[in-house]
């Protein structure tokens, strides 16, 4: 028998006539629905990405090209970690947003496959993958500008590299 129980915006609604006639049955159903929702929420806990996995993700995205990569293209690389396609897709979306912010791009259409986050500018594997897309990017022959900034949170001196690049290869 249908008792017209509906879930809308996280709230359960019951037809008042049915509630009066079948109070005990409906209350049991409501408890069962509540338990199912609680179990569903527990099974969808956030995945915590560690540093090693973040580097692996950056490397795989760069190998495939940030402009063209889709979650299904790299998902098989993360099967051992138990990551699902939707988790990779969510992380890819966040990764792309960070690149968009760092490079001050107006849209994803402006992406170039060689673009990587600044935190990987000193990572040889990720740089090598980026060079596949733009051989003049991150080369040792080019001077890298060293920027020093004072980190006002803990008074440490931070050094990071800003790569220089050109769209054409200069012949010497």
TrEMBL record:
Entry keywords, A to Z: Nucleus, Transcription, Transcription regulation
Top-level taxon in the UniProt lineage: Eukaryota
Entry coiled-coil feature ranges: none
Entry's Gene Ontology molecular function annotations: DNA binding
Keyword Ubl conjugation: no
Family matches, as NCBIfam families: myb_SHAQKYF
Protein's UniProt name: Myb-like domain-containing protein
Organism field: Hexamita inflata
Source lineage: Eukaryota, Metamonada, Diplomonadida, Hexamitidae, Hexamitinae
């Amino acid at each position: 028998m249908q008792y017209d129980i509906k879930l809308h915006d996280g709230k359960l609604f019951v037809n008042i006539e049915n509630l009066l006639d079948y109070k005990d049955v409906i209350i049991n159903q409501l408890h069962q629905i509540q338990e199912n929702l609680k179990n569903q929420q527990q099974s969808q806990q956030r995945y915590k990405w560690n540093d090693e996995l973040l580097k692996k993700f950056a490397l795989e995205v760069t190998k495939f090209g940030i402009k063209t990569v889709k979650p299904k293209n790299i998902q098989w690389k993360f099967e051992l970690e138990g990551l699902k396609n939707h988790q990779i897709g969510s992380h890819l979306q966040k990764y792309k947003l960070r690149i968009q912010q760092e490079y001050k791009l107006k849209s994803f259409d402006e992406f170039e496959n060689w673009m990587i986050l600044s935190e990987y500018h000193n990572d040889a594997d990720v740089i090598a993958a980026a060079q596949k897309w733009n051989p003049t990017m991150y080369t040792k022959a080019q001077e890298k500008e060293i920027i020093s900034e004072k980190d006002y949170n803990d008074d440490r001196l931070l050094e990071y590299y800003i790569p220089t690049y050109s769209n054409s290869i200069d012949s010497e």
